[in-house]
Design goal:
The structure holds 2 protein chains of 2 kinds. Chain A is an alpha/beta fold. Chain A is 25% helix and 20% strand. In chain A, the strands form 2 sheets. Chain A has a 6-stranded mixed beta sheet with strand order 1-9-8-4-3-2. Chain A has a 4-stranded antiparallel beta sheet with strand order 5-7-6-10. Chain A is globular and about 40 Å long. The C terminus of chain B is likely disordered. Classes of the chains: A alpha/beta, B alpha/beta.
């Protein structure tokens, strides 16, 4: 992607149209093929604990029309708040149930998926897209013990992801999320330079 | 190359973000119609403004675009949209199904099987499959929410009662991933089976009606039917008169005022490719085998 240093002012993406399109197509690709891991074309510096991948997602998808929620770790950082306010213009909301997008910097402390906006039966699209920063994101073989194994639209057979750290009861949460279908939230996982997704339409196996 | 004075691919970045948010929801809820703030485009409603907006939101410098109108690459609608993106995005265009990364289509799915990584964008006039059965948006929305598609089955049943078979031949309703009933746009029902478990991502844009919906790859798409009246596609008695292809969708071309007619491939690229390979139909011009790649519709 267009190499980009984050300047003190100005857009975070050097050639906005080109970079945003490349990032968006990657997001489309991983959401349409759940379990697929793709390189996320980002190359800019962000204030910790905001990772470049979380920032890339926000800059590409969020603006003043899409309320943004940050978890406690991100919200505690004045620099992260300033970065996101400046580069997205997003309205920050304190309740996860009001957010179009949620950025999670500390997955182990994240609220349960049901705390986010679920949409309504008439408008299931009025729901939160949850973007979770993880340390580890790797392909796995379906059925592997520590992996998340799932099936559904976009998946030829079954898919699996080795992803973490995540809350211990994530399988239960995802099964409940699937039970609410077509309401529910869609999850993106971002690690260093990579992204994958599990949409609400995926059925996660092996709840424990 | 691209024109100055416009943003890349015509739409401004904020509009693209709005459309992109709708596309992500559409992919996550296959077959559900996501409302979006459709913009005015420099072409009239009915000319594919929804498809154009979807394409503008996804297209990048590296993409290769193919545009078809009723299977043809060289009718007005297809030519003007292809030129629109060549001008505003500077992207490469093609007529070859295999070479395209994005295919925008009006009312057909190409005969050549789509592959992994391709995106097909459908232009949709009326996205709501229940609209002619129930005019109120509040009601159709509730019917989708309740997964209540009895009305549609009554409509298909009435077809059988009246005609002895399901007489719907295009825009034939489908159920996506076992949940939402969806209008596949006015493609002939001949093309419906191609949507089922397709390796390509399918996006649908309705500009006037302001809706976007999607079918992810490898997703079941079932044409509605009854156990005793199973879904079946059209059959043609003769092969294509130009390239001799069988089991493809054919257009009727009237040749004179004495009942003369011929049936030729609706998919012009497929037909040309076959003729270039040396296939010839019953009415192929003499020497067709010697001139591979010659364009023509039998007119």
């Amino acid at each position: 992607m267009a190499g980009t240093e984050v300047p003190a002012s100005g857009a975070a993406l050097a050639d906005v149209a080109k970079s945003a399109q490349a990032i968006f197509r990657t997001l489309v690709d991983v959401l349409a093929r759940p379990g697929t891991i793709r390189p996320l074309p980002v190359n800019f510096i962000t204030p910790a604990p905001l990772t470049p991948e979380l920032a890339a997602f926000a800059v590409t998808m969020v603006d003043q029309e899409a309320p943004l929620w940050l978890d406690a770790r991100l919200a505690a950082s004045e620099a992260a708040l300033r970065f996101l306010r400046f580069h997205t213009g997003a309205r920050l909301v304190s309740a996860p149930s009001q957010a179009s997008f949620a950025l999670v910097g500390d997955a182990l402390a994240m609220p349960e998926l049901q705390a986010f906006a679920q949409g309504t039966a008439d408008y299931p699209d009025a729901s939160t897209t949850v973007v979770i920063a993880v340390d580890h994101l790797a392909p796995a073989s379906p059925g592997a013990r520590a992996a998340l194994t799932f099936a559904g639209p976009g998946i030829d057979g079954r898919a699996a992801l080795s992803v973490g750290p995540l809350p211990l009861n994530i399988r239960v949460q995802m099964a409940e999320n699937r039970a609410r279908y077509p309401r529910g939230v869609d999850c993106f996982f971002v690690s260093r330079g990579h992204v994958a997704a599990i949409p609400r339409s995926a059925t996660v196996f092996g709840e424990d | 190359m691209s024109t100055t004075g416009y943003n890349f691919a015509y739409l401004d970045e904020q509009t693209k973000r709005m459309i992109r948010r709708a596309i992500l929801k559409a992919i996550a809820i296959p077959g559900y119609q996501v409302p979006f703030a459709s913009r005015e485009m420099p072409m009239p409603y009915g000319w594919g403004t929804g498809g154009v907006q979807v394409t503008a939101a996804i297209i990048g410098h590296d993409d290769v675009l193919k545009v078809i109108d009723q299977g043809s690459d060289d009718t007005t609608n297809a030519v003007s949209i292809r030129k629109f993106f060549a001008k505003t995005a500077g992207v490469a265009t093609t007529t070859r199904t295999r070479e395209a990364t994005i295919i925008q289509t009006r009312h057909r799915i190409p005969e050549a099987p789509l592959r992994e990584g391709q995106i097909i964008v459908y232009q949709v006039p009326i996205p709501e499959p229940l609209r002619f059965l129930e005019p109120r948006e509040t009601e159709t929305r509730r019917l989708h929410a309740l997964n209540d598609y009895g009305l549609m089955h009554v409509k298909l049943y009435e077809d059988i009662a009246r005609h002895g078979h399901i007489a719907t031949t295009y825009a034939y309703p489908v159920q996506v991933a076992g949940r939402y009933v969806m209008d596949p746009s006015p493609i002939p029902k001949f093309d419906n089976p191609k949507m089922h478990m397709s390796p390509a991502l399918q996006l649908f844009g309705a500009g006037r009606e302001k809706r976007i919906y999607a079918v992810p790859p490898h997703t079941p798409v079932k044409s509605l039917d009854f156990d005793d009246h199973p879904f079946a596609v059209q059959h043609f008695d003769k092969p294509c008169a130009l390239c001799g292809a069988e089991r493809v969708y054919l257009d009727e071309v009237v040749l004179d005022d004495r009942g003369g007619r011929m049936f030729v491939c609706s998919d012009t690229d497929y037909c040309e490719e076959r003729r270039a390979q040396g296939h010839a139909g019953a009415m192929a011009p003499d020497g067709a085998r010697a001139q591979p790649g010659e364009a023509g519709h039998g007119r």
